[in-house]
Amino acid sequence: MSIRKVVKYGTPSLREPSKEVHKVSQKIKVLVEDLLDTMYAQNGVGLAAPQVGENLRIFVIDVSTGDQPLNPMVFINPKIIKKSGAVISHEGCLSFPEAFTDVKRYANVMVKAMDRNGRSFVLEAKDGTLLARCIQHEFDHLNGVLFIDHVINRFDAESELSKNNLPPLEVDKILDEPELEPEIQRLLEERVKQEKSEENNG
Ligand code: NI
Asked: What residues does the ion ligand 1 have nearby, CB within 5 Å?
């Protein structure tokens, strides 16, 4: 199959909602293979169709590491049917080369989707694992939402973007997430305490 060009932040199609897949046709299967090839070529853990300029509701993930065998996961027409908890996630995105920042995510998600053969499956990812966070990141792409819309520290995100010659933060797109906020604040306080005690011990 082939490696596609990944579009960068600032490309309007990244902000457009994607369309449902009506049939897992040969053309869709080729797109899925291309998404996987492109993700692996870029050493990514996930890639969504709009990132290669196809506004269709498809994303792929592989969270295997090191010596583990590859574990490609394909999600077509995904729906998040359950979400709970909150976690701070340090994220980047293949459409934002070299830029990373902390964002708010749910800790647990349950997703329903179709695989590359058009078979329906349900998957639960818990405890803020990479898989749980990655599912939310890729799912967002299908709705034109980007990881920076979940940003915790705007100044940090701004500097990451400018350092890497990316367009500025779209402040009007930042999401209000009152259901995540109390737990995120608690986690941030915990982090500060942890850092202080490490300083004292060091
Ligand atoms: Ni991304």
From this structure: 93
Domain segments of the chain as ranges: 12-201
With contact defined as beta carbons under 8 Å apart, do 97 and 7 qualify? no
How far is 154 from 160, CA to CA, in rounded Å?
10
| Homologous superfamily (CATH) for 12-201 | Peptide deformylase (3.90.45.10)
Which pLDDT score is estimated for 13? Answer: 94
CA 200 – ligand 1 centroid, Å: 38
Confidence (pTM): 0.96
Distance 188 CA to ligand 1 centre (A): 24
Residue 138 appears among annotated catalytic residues: yes
Listing DSSP states for 127-157 in one string gives TT-HHHHHHHHHHHHTTT--GGGGBS-HHHH
71 Cα: distance to centroid of ligand 1 (angstroms): 19
Q: What is the pLDDT of residues 187-202, one digit of tens each?
A: 999 999 999 988 887 6
Active-site annotation holder among 33, 91, 98, 138: 138
Q: What is the pLDDT of residues 122-180, one digit of tens each?
A: 999 999 999 999 999 999 999 999 999 999 999 999 999 999 999 999 999 999 999 99
Distance 8 CA to ligand 1 centre (A): 10
